[in-house]
Amino acid sequence: xxxxxxIVDVLHSCLQTLHTFFRMLWRLPKFAEKETEMNRIRISNxxxxxxxxxxxxxxxxxxxxxxxxVLLWMHERGKxxxxxxxxxVENNEITGEPYFDEVTEESRQAKQQWxxxxxxxxxxxxxxxxxxxxxxxxxPGQTRPTVTKCxxxxxSMVDIGGNDDNIRLSRDGKxxxxxxxxxxxxxxxxxxxxxxxxxxxxxxxxxxxxxxLAEGATLQEVQQKINVILxxxxxxxxxxxxxDDLKKQLETMQMAGVTALVDDAIKAGKIDATKKDxxxxxxxxxxQESLKxxxxxxxxxxxxxxxxxxxxxxxxxxxxxxxxxxxxxxEMKLMRKEDPQxxxxxxxxxxxxxxxxxxx
Length: 360
Fold this sequence. Notes:
Elements (H helix, E strand, L loop, with lengths): L1 H38 L1 E4 L15 E2 L1 H5 L2 E4 L6 E11 L2 E8 L4 H12 L4 E12 L13 E13 L9 E4 L2 E2 L9 H4 L4 H18 L8 H49 L8 H11 L1 H9 L7 H8 L17 H10 L1 H12 L9
Parallel strand pairs: 2-7, 3-7, 6-8
Antiparallel strand pairs: 1-5, 3-4, 4-5, 6-7, 8-9
Protein backbone atom coordinates (compact mmCIF):
# COMPACT_ATOMS: atom_id res chain seq x y z
CA UNK A 1 0.00 0.00 0.00
CA UNK A 2 2.79 2.37 0.88
CA UNK A 3 4.57 1.51 -2.32
CA UNK A 4 1.44 2.25 -4.32
CA UNK A 5 1.10 5.62 -2.58
CA UNK A 6 4.70 6.41 -3.42
CA ILE A 7 4.10 5.63 -7.11
CA VAL A 8 1.01 7.86 -7.12
CA ASP A 9 2.95 10.73 -5.54
CA VAL A 10 5.72 10.37 -8.13
CA LEU A 11 3.20 10.34 -10.98
CA HIS A 12 1.46 13.40 -9.55
CA SER A 13 4.76 15.24 -9.31
CA CYS A 14 5.57 14.31 -12.90
CA LEU A 15 2.19 15.54 -14.07
CA GLN A 16 2.71 18.87 -12.30
CA THR A 17 6.10 19.22 -13.93
CA LEU A 18 4.64 18.45 -17.37
CA HIS A 19 1.78 20.85 -16.74
CA THR A 20 4.20 23.62 -15.82
CA PHE A 21 6.32 22.84 -18.90
CA PHE A 22 3.36 22.95 -21.29
CA ARG A 23 2.09 26.15 -19.71
CA MET A 24 5.46 27.80 -20.32
CA LEU A 25 5.60 26.33 -23.83
CA TRP A 26 2.12 27.74 -24.56
CA ARG A 27 3.16 31.18 -23.32
CA LEU A 28 6.38 31.39 -25.33
CA PRO A 29 4.81 32.26 -28.73
CA LYS A 30 2.71 35.04 -27.19
CA PHE A 31 5.73 36.46 -25.41
CA ALA A 32 7.69 36.45 -28.66
CA GLU A 33 4.80 38.06 -30.46
CA LYS A 34 4.66 40.79 -27.83
CA GLU A 35 8.38 41.40 -28.13
CA THR A 36 8.04 41.57 -31.90
CA GLU A 37 5.19 44.04 -31.67
CA MET A 38 7.23 46.23 -29.34
CA ASN A 39 10.07 46.35 -31.92
CA ARG A 40 7.85 47.32 -34.86
CA ILE A 41 7.45 50.86 -36.15
CA ARG A 42 4.65 52.40 -38.19
CA ILE A 43 5.68 53.30 -41.73
CA SER A 44 2.31 54.63 -42.91
CA ASN A 45 -1.40 54.65 -42.14
CA UNK A 46 -4.50 56.42 -43.45
CA UNK A 47 -4.74 59.27 -40.94
CA UNK A 48 -4.78 62.91 -42.12
CA UNK A 49 -1.20 64.21 -42.18
CA UNK A 50 0.55 67.57 -41.97
CA UNK A 51 0.08 68.23 -45.67
CA UNK A 52 -3.70 68.25 -45.36
CA UNK A 53 -3.99 64.93 -47.22
CA UNK A 54 -3.76 61.19 -46.50
CA UNK A 55 -2.21 58.19 -48.22
CA UNK A 56 -4.31 55.26 -49.33
CA UNK A 57 -2.51 52.21 -47.96
CA UNK A 58 -3.54 49.84 -50.75
CA UNK A 59 -2.10 52.33 -53.25
CA UNK A 60 1.40 52.25 -51.78
CA UNK A 61 3.89 50.44 -54.03
CA UNK A 62 6.40 48.59 -51.81
CA UNK A 63 8.09 46.63 -54.61
CA UNK A 64 11.22 48.75 -54.89
CA UNK A 65 11.52 49.35 -51.16
CA UNK A 66 11.34 45.62 -50.35
CA UNK A 67 14.27 45.06 -52.70
CA UNK A 68 16.25 47.76 -50.90
CA UNK A 69 14.59 48.48 -47.52
CA VAL A 70 17.22 51.04 -46.58
CA LEU A 71 17.01 52.79 -43.20
CA LEU A 72 18.51 56.31 -43.24
CA TRP A 73 19.18 58.89 -40.56
CA MET A 74 17.08 62.09 -40.91
CA HIS A 75 16.42 61.45 -44.66
CA GLU A 76 20.09 62.13 -45.40
CA ARG A 77 21.44 60.26 -48.41
CA GLY A 78 24.60 58.35 -47.59
CA LYS A 79 23.82 58.02 -43.87
CA UNK A 80 22.62 54.41 -43.85
CA UNK A 81 22.12 53.11 -40.32
CA UNK A 82 20.38 49.82 -41.16
CA UNK A 83 17.30 48.48 -42.89
CA UNK A 84 13.62 47.68 -42.33
CA UNK A 85 12.76 44.00 -41.88
CA UNK A 86 9.49 42.04 -41.79
CA UNK A 87 7.42 44.67 -43.61
CA UNK A 88 3.73 44.06 -42.98
CA VAL A 89 0.52 45.56 -44.43
CA GLU A 90 -2.43 45.03 -42.12
CA ASN A 91 -5.54 46.98 -41.09
CA ASN A 92 -4.73 49.84 -43.53
CA GLU A 93 -1.35 50.25 -41.88
CA ILE A 94 2.20 49.52 -43.01
CA THR A 95 4.70 48.53 -40.31
CA GLY A 96 8.19 47.08 -40.12
CA GLU A 97 11.05 46.25 -37.77
CA PRO A 98 14.02 48.64 -37.79
CA TYR A 99 17.36 46.81 -37.88
CA PHE A 100 20.50 48.76 -36.97
CA ASP A 101 23.72 47.40 -38.51
CA GLU A 102 25.95 49.20 -35.95
CA VAL A 103 28.57 49.87 -38.64
CA THR A 104 28.60 53.63 -38.08
CA GLU A 105 28.51 55.66 -34.90
CA GLU A 106 25.08 57.01 -35.92
CA SER A 107 23.76 53.46 -36.26
CA ARG A 108 25.14 52.36 -32.90
CA GLN A 109 23.73 55.44 -31.19
CA ALA A 110 20.34 55.08 -32.90
CA LYS A 111 20.09 51.43 -31.83
CA GLN A 112 20.87 52.22 -28.21
CA GLN A 113 18.35 55.08 -28.16
CA TRP A 114 15.72 52.92 -29.89
CA UNK A 115 16.18 50.18 -27.30
CA UNK A 116 16.10 52.72 -24.46
CA UNK A 117 12.93 54.24 -25.87
CA UNK A 118 14.33 57.75 -26.40
CA UNK A 119 14.32 57.44 -30.21
CA UNK A 120 10.76 56.54 -31.16
CA UNK A 121 9.83 58.18 -34.46
CA UNK A 122 10.40 57.29 -38.07
CA UNK A 123 9.55 59.08 -41.30
CA UNK A 124 8.84 57.50 -44.70
CA UNK A 125 9.50 59.23 -48.01
CA UNK A 126 6.84 58.67 -50.65
CA UNK A 127 6.96 59.56 -54.33
CA UNK A 128 3.43 60.66 -55.28
CA UNK A 129 2.09 59.01 -58.43
CA UNK A 130 -1.66 59.69 -58.45
CA UNK A 131 -4.02 62.12 -56.69
CA UNK A 132 -7.81 62.19 -56.37
CA UNK A 133 -10.29 64.79 -55.17
CA UNK A 134 -13.21 62.36 -55.25
CA UNK A 135 -15.68 63.31 -52.48
CA UNK A 136 -15.85 59.76 -51.15
CA UNK A 137 -12.11 59.87 -50.45
CA UNK A 138 -12.14 63.17 -48.53
CA UNK A 139 -11.81 63.22 -44.75
CA PRO A 140 -13.00 66.00 -42.38
CA GLY A 141 -10.49 68.85 -42.40
CA GLN A 142 -8.77 67.67 -45.57
CA THR A 143 -7.42 70.52 -47.72
CA ARG A 144 -5.56 68.72 -50.50
CA PRO A 145 -6.29 65.78 -52.81
CA THR A 146 -5.95 62.22 -51.53
CA VAL A 147 -2.77 60.34 -52.49
CA THR A 148 -4.24 57.24 -54.09
CA LYS A 149 -1.02 55.90 -55.59
CA CYS A 150 2.57 56.40 -54.46
CA UNK A 151 5.89 54.63 -54.10
CA UNK A 152 7.82 54.18 -50.83
CA UNK A 153 11.37 55.36 -51.58
CA UNK A 154 13.08 55.18 -48.19
CA UNK A 155 12.46 55.22 -44.46
CA SER A 156 14.39 57.26 -41.89
CA MET A 157 14.70 57.45 -38.16
CA VAL A 158 14.12 61.06 -37.06
CA ASP A 159 14.42 62.96 -33.80
CA ILE A 160 11.28 65.13 -34.19
CA GLY A 161 8.68 64.56 -36.86
CA GLY A 162 6.29 67.03 -38.44
CA ASN A 163 3.34 65.33 -36.73
CA ASP A 164 2.38 62.10 -35.02
CA ASP A 165 2.21 60.28 -38.35
CA ASN A 166 5.31 61.92 -39.76
CA ILE A 167 5.87 61.50 -43.50
CA ARG A 168 7.82 63.12 -46.29
CA LEU A 169 6.31 63.47 -49.75
CA SER A 170 7.81 64.15 -53.16
CA ARG A 171 6.40 64.31 -56.67
CA ASP A 172 8.14 64.37 -60.04
CA GLY A 173 11.46 64.39 -58.21
CA LYS A 174 10.60 67.50 -56.15
CA UNK A 175 10.28 67.37 -52.37
CA UNK A 176 7.04 68.81 -51.02
CA UNK A 177 8.09 71.33 -48.38
CA UNK A 178 6.08 72.45 -45.39
CA UNK A 179 8.32 74.62 -43.22
CA UNK A 180 9.05 78.17 -42.06
CA UNK A 181 11.76 78.52 -44.71
CA UNK A 182 9.72 77.36 -47.67
CA UNK A 183 6.35 76.01 -48.81
CA UNK A 184 6.05 74.71 -52.35
CA UNK A 185 3.12 72.43 -51.58
CA UNK A 186 0.82 74.27 -53.96
CA UNK A 187 3.21 73.58 -56.86
CA UNK A 188 3.00 69.80 -56.63
CA UNK A 189 0.08 69.12 -54.29
CA UNK A 190 -2.71 71.59 -55.21
CA UNK A 191 -5.34 72.82 -52.78
CA UNK A 192 -8.81 71.34 -53.22
CA UNK A 193 -11.32 73.54 -55.08
CA UNK A 194 -13.78 73.48 -52.20
CA UNK A 195 -11.01 74.63 -49.86
CA UNK A 196 -10.15 77.47 -52.25
CA UNK A 197 -13.81 78.47 -52.30
CA UNK A 198 -13.97 78.38 -48.51
CA UNK A 199 -10.81 80.48 -48.28
CA UNK A 200 -12.36 83.06 -50.61
CA UNK A 201 -15.52 83.10 -48.50
CA UNK A 202 -13.41 83.67 -45.39
CA UNK A 203 -11.59 86.50 -47.13
CA UNK A 204 -14.92 88.04 -48.19
CA UNK A 205 -16.17 87.79 -44.60
CA UNK A 206 -13.02 89.51 -43.32
CA UNK A 207 -13.34 92.34 -45.88
CA UNK A 208 -17.03 92.79 -45.06
CA UNK A 209 -16.27 93.17 -41.35
CA UNK A 210 -13.49 95.67 -42.13
CA UNK A 211 -15.97 97.73 -44.14
CA UNK A 212 -18.42 97.75 -41.27
CA LEU A 213 -20.82 95.28 -42.91
CA ALA A 214 -22.28 92.10 -41.49
CA GLU A 215 -20.08 89.00 -41.86
CA GLY A 216 -22.76 87.46 -44.07
CA ALA A 217 -22.68 90.36 -46.57
CA THR A 218 -22.80 89.35 -50.23
CA LEU A 219 -20.13 90.12 -52.80
CA GLN A 220 -22.45 92.73 -54.38
CA GLU A 221 -22.92 94.51 -51.03
CA VAL A 222 -19.17 94.54 -50.45
CA GLN A 223 -18.57 95.96 -53.95
CA GLN A 224 -21.20 98.68 -53.39
CA LYS A 225 -19.55 99.67 -50.12
CA ILE A 226 -16.13 99.77 -51.78
CA ASN A 227 -17.54 101.96 -54.59
CA VAL A 228 -18.94 104.39 -52.00
CA ILE A 229 -15.56 104.57 -50.28
CA LEU A 230 -13.80 105.09 -53.61
CA UNK A 231 -16.31 107.87 -54.37
CA UNK A 232 -15.47 109.54 -51.05
CA UNK A 233 -11.81 109.13 -51.83
CA UNK A 234 -12.19 110.77 -55.24
CA UNK A 235 -14.27 113.63 -53.80
CA UNK A 236 -11.72 114.13 -51.05
CA UNK A 237 -8.92 114.35 -53.62
CA UNK A 238 -10.92 116.94 -55.61
CA UNK A 239 -11.53 119.00 -52.47
CA UNK A 240 -7.83 118.90 -51.65
CA UNK A 241 -6.98 120.16 -55.14
CA UNK A 242 -9.52 122.97 -54.92
CA UNK A 243 -8.26 123.89 -51.46
CA ASP A 244 -4.68 124.05 -52.73
CA ASP A 245 -5.74 126.23 -55.69
CA LEU A 246 -7.65 128.62 -53.41
CA LYS A 247 -4.69 128.76 -51.07
CA LYS A 248 -2.39 129.70 -53.94
CA GLN A 249 -4.84 132.37 -55.15
CA LEU A 250 -5.11 133.81 -51.66
CA GLU A 251 -1.33 133.87 -51.28
CA THR A 252 -1.04 135.66 -54.66
CA MET A 253 -3.62 138.26 -53.61
CA GLN A 254 -1.95 138.77 -50.25
CA MET A 255 1.42 139.13 -51.97
CA ALA A 256 0.01 141.74 -54.34
CA GLY A 257 -1.52 143.65 -51.40
CA VAL A 258 1.72 143.57 -49.42
CA THR A 259 3.73 144.73 -52.45
CA ALA A 260 1.30 147.59 -53.05
CA LEU A 261 1.60 148.71 -49.40
CA VAL A 262 5.40 148.63 -49.60
CA ASP A 263 5.41 150.60 -52.87
CA ASP A 264 3.10 153.22 -51.37
CA ALA A 265 5.33 153.52 -48.31
CA ILE A 266 8.35 154.05 -50.55
CA LYS A 267 6.52 156.78 -52.53
CA ALA A 268 5.43 158.44 -49.28
CA GLY A 269 9.02 158.47 -48.13
CA LYS A 270 8.27 156.29 -45.14
CA ILE A 271 10.86 153.65 -46.07
CA ASP A 272 13.85 153.52 -48.35
CA ALA A 273 13.54 151.61 -51.63
CA THR A 274 16.53 149.48 -50.68
CA LYS A 275 14.43 147.99 -47.85
CA LYS A 276 11.62 146.84 -50.16
CA ASP A 277 12.38 143.09 -49.96
CA UNK A 278 12.71 143.28 -46.18
CA UNK A 279 9.23 144.80 -45.75
CA UNK A 280 7.68 142.42 -48.29
CA UNK A 281 8.98 139.43 -46.27
CA UNK A 282 7.73 141.12 -43.12
CA UNK A 283 4.29 141.44 -44.71
CA UNK A 284 4.30 137.72 -45.56
CA UNK A 285 5.02 136.89 -41.93
CA UNK A 286 2.70 139.30 -40.09
CA UNK A 287 0.00 139.74 -42.74
CA GLN A 288 -1.26 142.62 -44.81
CA GLU A 289 -3.27 144.28 -42.04
CA SER A 290 -0.40 144.30 -39.54
CA LEU A 291 1.96 145.73 -42.18
CA LYS A 292 -0.54 148.50 -42.97
CA UNK A 293 -0.75 149.44 -39.29
CA UNK A 294 3.05 149.54 -39.16
CA UNK A 295 3.24 151.91 -42.13
CA UNK A 296 0.39 154.08 -40.78
CA UNK A 297 2.42 154.63 -37.61
CA UNK A 298 5.40 155.88 -39.66
CA UNK A 299 5.92 159.54 -40.69
CA UNK A 300 7.09 160.48 -44.17
CA UNK A 301 10.69 161.71 -44.37
CA UNK A 302 11.07 165.48 -45.12
CA UNK A 303 13.68 166.71 -47.61
CA UNK A 304 16.01 169.53 -46.49
CA UNK A 305 14.82 171.75 -49.34
CA UNK A 306 11.29 171.42 -48.14
CA UNK A 307 12.31 172.61 -44.69
CA UNK A 308 14.35 175.46 -46.15
CA UNK A 309 11.57 176.47 -48.52
CA UNK A 310 9.11 176.45 -45.69
CA UNK A 311 11.25 178.93 -43.78
CA UNK A 312 12.04 181.22 -46.82
CA UNK A 313 10.22 184.34 -48.09
CA UNK A 314 8.71 185.80 -51.23
CA UNK A 315 7.75 183.26 -53.83
CA UNK A 316 8.76 180.40 -51.49
CA UNK A 317 6.21 181.25 -48.83
CA UNK A 318 4.11 178.33 -49.81
CA UNK A 319 7.16 176.00 -50.06
CA UNK A 320 7.50 176.38 -53.85
CA UNK A 321 9.72 178.77 -55.86
CA UNK A 322 8.40 180.17 -59.13
CA UNK A 323 11.77 180.48 -60.84
CA UNK A 324 15.39 179.70 -60.24
CA UNK A 325 16.47 183.23 -59.53
CA UNK A 326 14.29 183.25 -56.39
CA UNK A 327 16.36 180.49 -54.80
CA UNK A 328 19.16 181.66 -52.54
CA UNK A 329 22.64 180.58 -53.66
CA UNK A 330 23.34 178.21 -50.76
CA GLU A 331 19.93 176.66 -51.10
CA MET A 332 20.42 176.33 -54.87
CA LYS A 333 23.61 174.36 -54.32
CA LEU A 334 21.77 172.12 -51.88
CA MET A 335 18.86 171.77 -54.31
CA ARG A 336 21.16 170.65 -57.15
CA LYS A 337 22.44 167.91 -54.89
CA GLU A 338 19.37 166.89 -52.89
CA ASP A 339 16.45 167.70 -55.23
CA PRO A 340 17.69 167.83 -58.84
CA GLN A 341 14.18 167.38 -60.17
CA UNK A 342 13.00 170.61 -58.49
CA UNK A 343 16.15 172.36 -59.76
CA UNK A 344 15.37 171.36 -63.36
CA UNK A 345 11.77 172.57 -62.98
CA UNK A 346 12.84 175.99 -61.80
CA UNK A 347 15.58 176.18 -64.43
CA UNK A 348 13.04 175.64 -67.20
CA UNK A 349 10.69 178.23 -65.68
CA UNK A 350 13.60 180.69 -65.51
CA UNK A 351 15.13 180.17 -68.96
CA UNK A 352 12.36 178.45 -70.95
CA UNK A 353 14.54 175.48 -71.92
CA UNK A 354 15.32 172.16 -70.33
CA UNK A 355 18.10 172.10 -67.85
CA UNK A 356 21.28 170.48 -69.15
CA UNK A 357 22.69 167.40 -67.44
CA UNK A 358 23.75 168.27 -63.93
CA UNK A 359 27.21 167.40 -62.70
CA UNK A 360 26.91 166.95 -58.98
